[in-house]
């Protein structure tokens, strides 16, 4: 069974810091990996999608990397701002789950950026 | 604007009173799905649909029904709600998996008393 771990579970940093969120998974047979942002009481917003053949994707201050062989993905946030405060979730289609469209989610990292 | 719209956003109701949560997408996506999110349990798939008239169970389908009569709509029906169905519900849509990203609605918070 695919297991997904996001470390740390919570993170508090001062504004302006660069930070890295981690996502690890046990089965390297994934189709793609997505990073989502969830604000309290709100839905999930897709941030970045990395196909299994890609190593990284960038959008603005965000950079996500994927290393299938080691079962890891990282989300790098540059020059963090208070508006980045949210829960960040990694998710992917693992072996067999693409047949159901079920994304396998990590538990998330809750980020607080203090002014 | 491309979006997934859920209604209602909030609902407090009582045990046994049938309710429907609507979900509509304007992106012409084939695939739609319902998830519930609970503290400590993360997001769990309830039902999904690969196309019109095609639906199937996810991980936690008990107590729920769905239908997919039109491509854009995928309502979630609770025939006889119970307190253990109190949760935050999300509808999502995408191209046929594993293509593209899933787009999520803003969520529906249900409280069953």
Give me some keywords for this one.
heterodimer; A: 115 residues; mainly beta; 6-stranded mixed β-sheet; 0% helix; 54% strand; B: 113 residues; 7-stranded mixed β-sheet; 4-stranded antiparallel β-sheet
Description:
The complex is a heterodimer of chains A (115) and B (113). Chain A is mostly beta strands and 115 residues long. The model of chain A has no long low-confidence stretch (mean pLDDT 91). Chain A contains no helices and 11 strands. Chain A is globular. Chain B has strands at residues 4-7, 10-13, 19-25, 31-38, 42-51, 54-57, 65-66, 76-78, 87-94, 103-104, 108-112. Chain B is globular, with a radius of gyration of 13 Å. The A-B interface holds A 31-32, 34, 36, 41-46, 49, 89, 93, 98-103, 105-108 and B 4, 31, 33, 42-43, 45, 48, 50, 56, 58-59, 88, 90, 92, 94, 96-98, 100-107, 109.
Brief synopsis:
With 115 residues, chain A is an all-beta fold. Chain A has strands spanning 4-7, 10-14, 19-25, 32-38, 44-51, 56-59, 62-67, 72-77, 86-92, 104-105, 109-114. Chain A is built from no helices and 11 strands.
Query: Which regions of chain A contain 5 or more consecutive residues with pLDDT less than 50?
Result: none
Number of extended strands of chain B: 11
How many distinct beta strands of chain A?
11
Could you describe the largest sheet of chain B, including whether it forms a barrel? 7 strands, mixed
Q: Oligomer, anyone?
A: heterodimer
Write the layout of secondary structure elements.
The complex is a heterodimer of chains A (115) and B (113).
Chain A: E1 4-7, E2 10-14, E3 19-25, E4 32-38, E5 44-51, E6 56-59, E7 62-67, E8 72-77, E9 86-92, E10 104-105, E11 109-114
Parallel strand pairs in A: 2-11
Antiparallel strand pairs in A: 1-3, 3-8, 4-5, 4-9, 6-7, 7-8, 9-10, 9-11
Chain B: E1 4-7, E2 10-13, E3 19-25, E4 31-38, E5 42-51, E6 54-57, E7 65-66, E8 76-78, E9 87-94, E10 103-104, E11 108-112
Parallel strand pairs in B: 2-11
Antiparallel strand pairs in B: 1-3, 3-8, 4-5, 4-9, 5-6, 7-8, 9-10, 9-11
